[in-house]
Amino acid sequence: MDRTAQRALRRTGRTVAYDPSSTVSPLQVRAAAVLEAGWTGTSTVPSRSLYPHQWSWDSAFIAIGLRHISPLRAQTELDTLLAAQWADGRIPHIVFNPSVPLDAYFPSPDFWRSSTAGRTAGAPRTVQTSGIVQPPVHALAVWLVHLADPGLSRARGFLTRMYPRLAAWHRYLLHRRDLGGGGLVSVVHPWEQGMDNSPCWDRPLSRVTPAPARSFRRADLDHGSPEDRPTDLDYGRYVRLASDYRDRGYADGAGEFAVEDPAFNALLIASEYALARIAHELGAASTARQARAERLTAALVERLWEPAAGMFLCRDVRAGEPIPERGVSGLIPLLLPSLPRDLAATLVRTMCGPHFGLGGTTRLVPSYDLLGEAFDPHRYWRGPAWINTNWLLEGGLRLHGERGRADALRKGILHTAGASDFAEYVDPYTAQACGATGFGWTAALTLDLLHDRPAGDRNGVTAIKGGDQG
Predict the structure, then answer these.
(1) Is 321 designated active site?
(2) Which member of 187, 204, 399, 453 has the greatest number of CB atoms within 10 A?
(3) Among residues 36, 192, 196, 220, which one is catalytic?
């Protein structure tokens, strides 16, 4: 390992032993430097300019990468996030840094008013947060961080702290967000699903009267091209949904937007498997959680699988019907170990077919149907490729025996991350960088894919797949 690499890794707080004679690639050094630049002392911002606070699923993905260079810092990342959990169990999608000016990001703490509007739901009093949530990838992240250094994890009581918080988080989703009555979780805002302006939301969003443009100022346009970001009309609808939810005291079930999303539910299922592994590690019963994951998988197939589309579709709960748009969300259930074999094979064919083009017209899986009328290769989640969704799909391909395709996707992710300066997202045809560069989860998941895993842990997804619970 050269001195430059040693300095970069030491600055990240690396606590695991390494071989001084080993080599570290320039890409690893660059990725570690991105995470170092975003470190606040207790968590990592996704982007210093565009996203200057702590985001929920960003921190989970960042911890998955950080575990390879500093398991201690990866644990701290998740400790900080879950310390902001509400009493009703929800993990908010933003934890605000009080040292950041209010006008640096919108919606800011004075919009969400978590400590007052969220009082009934149990919002914390000592930290300001948003009132909505993001995809539940946290238990998977916690388990992977534990595996990076089990001795450190046990000495610090990491899983003992995390388990009751994660159990409460899943309980909130399963009990409070089953708005369709079919056992799946609904999101009540596009920001909750994480794919903000996906065309999958256009139909349910069309029922929402947008907030007047003069009632808010978009700080995101100070740091990103308007062509790469959601439109003002979309943003007005996001603001209206969020303000209505806030004004109801963050009570679930009464809003105009409620969607069962395949990726959100697939990540909950993956985290249920991970929570079963955590329970077993702690000496608690784990079979009920594994059984719940399998029941949720069956519910996902029953409610959201669309044979004609060859993939899962979102379901508009208010309209009581599927949304006929092909988004990358509908491929993410490939990461589930109990997905029926024929459905997994169909998802692979769809991913590699004309709608997503993997291995043919595209090197990475785009966020939306290449043939869809709303496809836009640069506009956020309406077509660009994202590293986090491709990381999940790489794991899903590997899990279901598609080693060659998984290897090719891994190679494509690593090349794109390096060539784009760790871009937030990229044009799926040209890999042109879009959004922010030096983006946190792009760097973190690059580190994860660069890590030389033992044969039994070729990707994060395999860590939750049945078998030995140790």
Answers:
(1) no
(2) 187
(3) 196
